From TrEMBL:
The chain holds residues 262 to 629 of 629 of the full protein. Its main location: cytoplasm. GO terms for biological process: amino sugar biosynthetic process; carbohydrate metabolic process; fructose 6-phosphate metabolic process; protein N-linked glycosylation; UDP-N-acetylglucosamine metabolic process. This is Glutamine--fructose-6-phosphate aminotransferase [isomerizing]. One of its GO terms (molecular function) is carbohydrate derivative binding. Homodimer. The keyword Oxidoreductase does not apply. It is found in: Cytoplasm. The gene is glmS. It catalyses: D-fructose 6-phosphate + L-glutamine = D-glucosamine 6-phosphate + L-glutamate. The keyword Transferase applies. Residues 42-181, 214-358 form the SIS domain. Its EC number is 2.6.1.16.
Length: 368
């Protein structure tokens, strides 16, 4: 049942090319249009939406953070991301012009369920992004975009996360399509890029042994830092969460730009710092993150840099470089997270932990 793998989690990491391809399947017409028939909220209603609130817990919440960047860029609707457990209890502003997007792999998380119940009571429309057919959250939503990742057994989410990202991109592009987007060509370009993701994820998986070697070199370390900026920030948070969940190690994700406002004080010599570098591009983001690598290196940190293949600028400041296939910035988390999943899985295995059933955690938490 584990298909020759030691853990369900490792098997699920390796299933990601297929899971992503299946999530895209049938959702793009030959005419270059997005088809999301499952969205049973009328285009008229969706055109009137003036705010989007994205709700989730844990990994799903990080997928929501990426979604905010993508949706605001493509659709130009203000988008908030909120932890489901915080949402209901702070008297949030939601009304019939609000679209609530609930992200949940299991579809049974009590915090998320209570949050959408509250949103619907206020007249808000709810779209679920979910991996489990017929589960409670989709049943209580107006519409659902299913991620077709197949059952996820490992408690730490992997293919659940990357397919949530894909579903969020699809939702963003769909909203852009029906609201008439000024970047019409961009929809097609992004769809083309999405179709190429399975092959690029596969390329990263083909080099898993490099990440495993790194895991064995670092397995005696007890504190880890993950840095990223823009959508690399939630990817960094997700890398840190994987290590907490299954390796029980102290790991923190920070927005790289915040480093100088506090976190740099905790850098010790030899501390492993993973840095996700945005693709080299038009803006200055890339160069700023490269400066952050220099800054932590200067304090003796061991730098593990995830950067676009062929990015010459990072080499001199990196103890280890993990090359990522070329992709546009907004889609980069789908690739960046894969080596981080492999790393956490291998460290946890080396430490002798039960990777699929980590202590103190449950796959779906059905109490608030
Ligand atoms: C947690 C799980 O309790 O719930 C996490 O341990 C998961 O892995 C989170 O990300 C949210 O779960 P779901 O099913 O709502 O996506």
């Amino acid at each position: 049942e584990k298909g020759g793998f030691d853990w369900f989690m490792r098997k699920e990491i390796f299933e990601q090319p297929k899971a992503i391809a299946d999530t895209l399947l049938g959702r793009y017409s030959a005419r270059g249009e997005l088809v999301l028939d499952e969205i049973r909220i009328s285009p008229e209603t969706l055109r009137r939406i003036d705010k989007i609130v994205i709700i989730g817990c844990g990994t799903a919440h990080y997928a929501g953070m990426v979604a905010k960047y993508a949706i605001e860029h493509w659709v130009r609707i203000p988008c908030e991301v909120e932890l489901a457990s915080e949402f209901r209890y702070r008297d949030p502003i939601v009304n019939p012009q609000t679209l609530c997007v609930a992200i949940s792999q299991s579809g049974e998380t009590a915090d998320t369920l209570q949050a959408i119940r509250h949103a619907r009571e206020q007249g808000s429309h709810v779209i679920a992004i979910c991996n489990t057919n017929g589960s409670t959250i989709p049943r209580e939503s107006d519409a659902v975009i299913y991620t077709h990742a197949g059952p996820e057994i490992g408690v730490a989410s992997t293919k659940g996360f990357t397919t949530q990202l894909v579903a969020c991109y699809l939702l963003g592009l769909y909203l852009a399509q029906i609201r008439g987007m000024k970047y019409g060509d961009e929809i097609r370009d992004v769809m083309d890029e999405l179709q190429q993701l399975p092959a690029k994820v596969q390329e990263l998986l083909d080099h898993a042994s490099t990440v495993y070697e790194l895991a064995h070199q670092l397995a005696d370390q007890e504190d880890y830092i993950f840095l990223g900026r823009h959508v690399g920030y939630p990817a960094a948070l997700e890398g840190a969460l994987k290590l907490k969940e299954i390796a029980y190690l102290h790991s923190e994700g920070f927005a790289a730009g915040e480093l100088k406002h506090g976190p740099i004080a905790i850098i010790n010599p030899d501390m492993p710092v993973f840095v996700i570098v945005p693709p080299q591009g038009r803006d200055q983001l890339h160069d700023k993150v490269v400066s952050n690598i220099q800054e932590v290196r200067a304090r003796g940190a061991r730098t593990i840099v995830l950067a676009e293949q062929g990015d010459e600028h990072v080499v001199q400041f990196a103890d280890t470089v993990i090359g990522l296939p070329t992709v546009s910035t907004l889609l980069q988390p789908v690739l960046a997270v894969v080596p981080l999943q492999l790393f956490a899985c291998e460290v946890a295995t080396a430490l002798g932990n039960d990777v699929d059933q980590p202590r103190n955690l449950a796959k779906s938490v059905t109490v608030e």
